[in-house]
Each structure stands twice: as C-alpha cells, then as structure tokens.
Design brief:
By secondary structure, this protein is of the alpha+beta class. It has two domains: 44 residues, no CATH class; 144 residues, no CATH class. Helices cover 30% and strands 12% of the residues. The chain contains six helices and seven strands. Strands 1, 2, 3 and 4 form a four-stranded antiparallel β-sheet that branches. The chain has a three-stranded antiparallel β-sheet with strand order 5-6-7, with no helix packed on it. The radius of gyration is 29 Å and the shape is elongated. It starts with 5 loop residues before the first helix and ends in a 24-residue tail after the last strand.
Length: 210
C-alpha cells in the first residue's frame, strides 16, 4: 500500500476542514471558495494556455464588410464612438464624408448590429462606411494635395534655414519631414480612432486623417 506523504495529508486536512463559526459573511464566502479549490492546474498542459486570438487585430473588419470592400462596393473604417466625433465625420463634404453602418443602409451587416445602439460597435469604436468610388476620389484628392505641397520646395533652401544634422528636410505646405530613408513622418494629432482603416493599411487614407 502506497504511503501518503506529508503534503498529501496536509492537503486532505485543509480540504476537510470545517468552517469556523465566528466568520463574517464575507470571510465565510472566501473560506468556501478556498475549500472548493482542487489540483486541476496540475493536469493543464502549457499548450492549452496559448490564446491565439490575442494575435488578431481587435479592429479587423467583419467578413461581410471585407467582402464588400474587396468587391469595391463600400469602404469601411472604425471611428471613436462619441457624438462629437460621429457628427464630425458625418458633416464632411463629399467625398470625405462617412455614414454610420446600420441594418438598413448595409443589410449585409445586419447580423453584426448591436441591438441596443443599432450600429456595429466594438470596444469604444463604431463602424462607418462610404461608397467605394468616394474612397477612391478622396485618395486621389489627398495624393494631389501631397504632390502639390512637395512641389513647393524645401523650406531650408527657400528661407536659408540651417540644415538639420539628422539629414532630414522640412518641406513647405505640410508639417512633415523626409529623412535619409525617405520615410514620411507625419506630425498630426491623434484622433483616437481605431487603428484599422479600410481598405488597406497602406492606402493614402492613412496618410491624411480626417
């Protein structure tokens, strides 16, 4: 017969310990939870603790929205779910304007609509959309603006400013600089919107934010 070691004996004693009579309601609740614990953790392998969902983009578009985007019917993005922010993007002129997704204007996403708010929400964000042709027109407008600003020239040579020791050039018309690796570094206030901007994170829609 296998002899129980001291640890196993002590564990059994703790498990069968009677609840003291002088505990408060809160202490009694904690006591009961302690007694209910077991050694389940010993049988859980490390693989079961890996949550691969953590690698997912929290603001990834719903599959239905991705399909509409890929078909070049609608463009989508997440914006901060605050009345002032929603009013801001809805009051822009076409083609910069966005509309709030609901079950009527985008029926393909009806199953993703929050029953209380009537829109597609995630965390502190709400999903908005616009016709894809507007998205393309807006990108062209932004590209034209950037091209025009680049043509205005280097501020350092224009105004005889000292050259930045980092090798960066400050260009007129926009508060950004071109470094030695030609990487555009924007200096714009963070809107607080979700990081996902669809379609495509490499689109010009990410360069000039409304």
């Amino acid at each position: 017969m296998k002899k129980k070691n001291k640890q196993e004996t002590e564990t059994k004693v703790i498990k069968t310990k009677q609840q003291p009579k002088n505990l408060t309601t809160e202490e009694a609740a904690i006591f009961q939870r302690i007694q209910a614990e077991d050694n389940e953790w010993e049988t859980i392998p490390e693989d079961e603790t890996l949550d691969y969902s953590l690698a997912e983009d929290p603001f990834k578009l719903p599959p239905e929205a991705i399909k509409l985007r890929d078909q070049k019917k609608l463009a989508f993005r997440w914006v901060t779910r605050k009345p002032e922010r929603v009013d801001e993007i809805r009051s822009l002129d076409v083609p910069r304007r966005w509309w709030i997704v609901n079950a009527t204007n985008v029926p393909e996403l009806a199953n993703k609509v929050d029953p209380m708010l009537g829109g597609v929400v995630k965390l502190d964000q709400i999903l908005v959309f616009k016709p894809y042709w507007m998205y393309e027109a807006e990108n062209k407008m932004k590209q034209d603006m950037i091209t025009a600003r680049d043509k205005e020239g280097d501020l350092a040579s224009k105004h005889k400013m000292p050259v930045d020791e980092s090798g960066s050039q400050f260009l007129s018309g926009k508060e950004y600089k071109i470094g030695t690796g030609d990487e555009v570094l924007l200096h714009e206030a963070d809107t607080g919107d979700g990081v996902a901007f669809e379609p495509g994170d490499d689109s010009l829609g990410n360069i000039v934010e409304e």
